[in-house]
Structure formats: C-alpha cells, structure tokens
Amino acid sequence: MYIVTAEEMYEIDRYAIEHGGIDGKILMENAGRAIAERIIKQEASYQSAAVLAGGGNNGGDGFVIARYLQQSGFEVKVFQLVPDQKLTSEALYHKKLFINHHGGVETDINVEMLRKDLPYYQLVIDAILGIGVKGAIRPNIKPFISLLNECNQKIISVDIPSGLPANESVQIDTAVKADHTYIVEAPKQSLFTEWGFPYYGEWEIVSIGVPKQAYHRKSFARRWERDDVIATLRKRDTFSHKGSHGKGVVIGGQQMMPGSVTLTASAALRAGAGLLTVATVKDNISIIAHKCTEAMYHVLEEQDGTIKENDVTPFRTFDGAAIGMGMGRDPVTAKFTQRLIHDLDIPVIVDADGLHHLKPILNKVGKRNYPLIITPHYGEMAMLTEYTIDRIKLSPMAIAKEFARKYQLYVVLKGKFTIITSPDGKQTVSDTGNAGLAKGGTGDVLSGVILAMVMQHSSHLEALCNACYIHGASADMRVKTGRNTEIDMLASDVIDGLSHVFHTLF
C-alpha cells in the first residue's frame, strides 16, 4: 500500500487521465460508486443520508454517492455549500446527473438552516473539502465543519476528513472528526501522524481504477503489510545450520542495567539469530544467563560497574552488532561506543545510550562500508536533530528522510507509526503494535529483532520493515488472544509472542 502527498495524488490522477485514458468524470464516478457500495453494505441499518458537498472533486464524489444511495432506497438530500460557479466541471456534470435521477439538492444555505435539517437524516456524508487544504479554512466553510463536529449522527468522510491537511508539516486549523473515512486509492501522509490519525476514525481504501503504472514512476512511501512480510521473510533451508542465520553480538549493560541487553539478546535469538553473544560486564553474566541460557558471553572491562573497554578487535568476526542498550553515558564508555561504530565493518544497530554517544561523530559515519541503523524514539530524535519533539511529530517523515540522507544511515523512528528510512530516502511505515508497547524494554526487544533480521536478509530495508512489523504484531496478538492487555504487557511478553507471529506467517 502506497502513502502519498496531495501533490503525488494529483500526479497519479493526472497519469490515469493522460496515459490511462480515463476521463476525470469516470474517475469521479468510480470513486463515488465504490464508496456508496461500501456504505450500502456496511451501513445497512441506515435509511437516510445528508450529503454535504463542496466545490472540488470531493463535492463531485458526493453527488455520485448520493445518486447511488438514492437508487438503493436511501432517502438522500445533497446540501451544496458553494454556488454552481465554484463547482469543477466534473462535479457540475455529476450534479446534473443526480438531478436528472430526481435527486434533491439544497443550495444557498447557511449553518442555521443546516442545523435544523440535519436531525432528519441518520447518516452525514462529508464531501466538503479534499486533499488540497494547506492552512486556514475559508470563513464560509469553517462553520459547517464545526456543525458536523457537534452533531450526533454518524459522519462518513470522503477520501479525507474535511479541513484536515493531506500532507504532514501543515498545521490544522479545524477539521471534521469522522467516524469512518473511505480513502480514495491511496492513504495520505496525515493518516500516519499522531495529529492526523484521530480525525479519520475507522478507515479503509477504495480503488478507482488507476493504472498500476502510475505508481511505478517514482518511489512513493509505503505501508508495510502482512503480504510484504510473507513475500520477503527468509525461509529456512533444509540443510541450513546455526552459522547460516547470523552470528550476532549485543554490546552493553553496565552493572546496574543487565535487563536491557537480556531483552535484546533474547529477542534476537527468538527472532532467528543462529548464534548470539552478549558482551557485558562480568557481574551481569550470571543474571543474564539465568534468563537467556542460549547466549554466549564476552566480558567487558569495567570499573565500578561502568564499561571501560577499549579493544574492539574481538567484535570484528561477527555478522552484526546491537550497541547501546544499558550502556550508560560515561565519557569513557562513549569513546568505546564511538570506536565500535567507526571501526566495525559489519551492520551496527545503535539504540538508547548509544544514540547519545553517536551524536558527536555523526559527520563521520557516512564513510562506513556497512550499514548503520539507529532506532530513536521521538525524544531521542529530538536530541539528535535538536528539533523539538512537537516539530518532529508535525513532520516525522520529512525529518527522518532529511537525517537519513544527510548522514547516510538507516533511521527507524519509533512510534505508533514507525517510520523506516534508508540512506537514499526510501520510506516505509509500519503501523502494527498497540499502547502495550509504551513501556520500558520494548525498544530493546525491537533492537534484538532487528539484529536477527539484518543478519538474515539481503535487503537491509526489508529486514528493518519485517522486524518492525513482527515486533508490533507480537504485541497485537498478545492482546487479541487475551494473553495480555495493553496495561499489563511487559517487554518479555512481546518476546514470548514472537513464536505466535512466526507461526501465523508461515
């Protein structure tokens, strides 16, 4: 599933018209019919609908929806919020078609008139504004959006809730809070932001017949789905052995933080790593071994429980490393972390304290021969970029892309919508997972799954996408099967759930 900006969606429509030979009126017909068919099927208990139509393509979709609802037996009226001269030619065409089918259209209305009429209808179809919103809502439209947010009927938005920007980086003025949104062809960026998602309500995609070639012309962002995992997840060969699936090392865990590396190591083994070594201070080994009996161990030099190791030579023989979990922020430890990042010619995943150690040497990491993967949450991304957390939440995809390209590394920006970005700017969103992951240690688990996947995939981007999907899917299954709730879930529960995920995938 592709994720597009408003400008990219316009390009896709233009391609369908100019190269696919599909007239704009037909695209509008396809969109409206597809949405109406879903409404008729899914909202069978409703018998009447008010359609609020604006002047753009959304308004035209609204006239098509109204015609099909009326033909199916709904009592329908269209409330046209703009004069005819503001309708696009396609929207005007479908208005006339609706009227020719004896459809009722109310024009020249104001908010108070609509306030009196809406209670007579069970459904309200929001077809006022489309994906072109970029700032303040026009004063003649804004009161109608406020009215919809006050009414008690079920609100269904066409393509996007009216007033909501399609693109990230745009501040919301006011927008419809839909109960359900039928997204036309491809989801827009705002669906996968913390600020935009709540406005959509339940959502689903309707196809309007755009040629597949329209998506092959450039690299659009994608939503990573179950079918993508099944298509790319490496299957085990009958004659494979433990060396076939990666020899990894987890480096970290000062004396007061043994739990973090324990979680990372356990997750890596559960996610398929063939061999796993934990490099940590001596006093932690008995604690970790009690929980992770399958791992091997390497003792790091330490002083008073703080890592003081200098030698990175023993770690050159591994296929991948995860660094930073429970590392601590001592300056001497930081130098060790920086040497590991600089000197190891293997894929390196950096998380937690390691991200703080990484920041001073960011300008040097682009020269690495093997991938560097960072896994910050929003607070850590703010530390690395010196943007505020609010600024990152407003534009997570743009900031992640800017950072990945600038420093030539992979960014896994963790959140409800985890954004995976490669050094060349390709982006994928993983939206599995739930609020049960909002607990200490779940990021350590993700690092372990990433380590295992990176050592088993030829494509680093696919490895990261699969790791994020599987990590979130484990949390989802734990809740769905009743093993946990979002309140009591622990990071170790997510590790236990990985087996269930793999079972369902294979």
Automatic annotation (TrEMBL):
An MF annotation (GO) of this entry: ADP-dependent NAD(P)H-hydrate dehydratase activity
Keywords of this entry: ATP-binding, Isomerase, Lyase, Metal-binding, Multifunctional enzyme, NAD, NADP, Nucleotide-binding, Potassium
Binding sites annotated in the UniProt record for K(+): 58, 126, 162
The YjeF N-terminal domain, residue ranges: 9-216
EC nos: 4.2.1.136, 5.1.99.6
Protein name in UniProt: Bifunctional NAD(P)H-hydrate repair enzyme
Similarity field: In the C-terminal section; belongs to the NnrD/CARKD family.
Top-level taxonomy: Bacteria, Bacillati, Bacillota, Bacilli, Bacillales
Cofactors: Mg(2+); K(+)
Residues annotated as binding (6S)-NADPHX: 57-61, 130-136, 159, 326, 377, 444
Chain residues that bind AMP: 414-418, 443
Biological role: Bifunctional enzyme that catalyzes the epimerization of the S- and R-forms of NAD(P)HX and the dehydration of the S-form of NAD(P)HX at the expense of ADP, which is converted to AMP. This allows the repair of both epimers of NAD(P)HX, a damaged form of NAD(P)H that is a result of enzymatic or heat-dependent hydration. Catalyzes the epimerization of the S- and R-forms of NAD(P)HX, a damaged form of NAD(P)H that is a result of enzymatic or heat-dependent hydration. This is a prerequisite for the S-specific NAD(P)H-hydrate dehydratase to allow the repair of both epimers of NAD(P)HX.
Pfam families listed in its UniProt record: Carb_kinase, YjeF_N
GO terms (BP aspect): metabolite repair; nicotinamide nucleotide metabolic process
Cofactor-binding details, from the entry: Binds 1 potassium ion per subunit.
Assembly and interaction partners: Homotetramer.
Residues in YjeF C-terminal domain copies: 225-505
Catalyzed chemical reaction(s): (6R)-NADPHX = (6S)-NADPHX; (6S)-NADHX + ADP = AMP + phosphate + NADH + H(+); (6S)-NADPHX + ADP = AMP + phosphate + NADPH + H(+); (6R)-NADHX = (6S)-NADHX
Stored NCBIfam families: yjeF_cterm, yjeF_nterm
Family matches, as InterPro entries: Carbohydrate_kinase_pred_CS, CARKD, Nnr, Ribokinase-like, YjeF_N_dom, YjeF_N_dom_sf
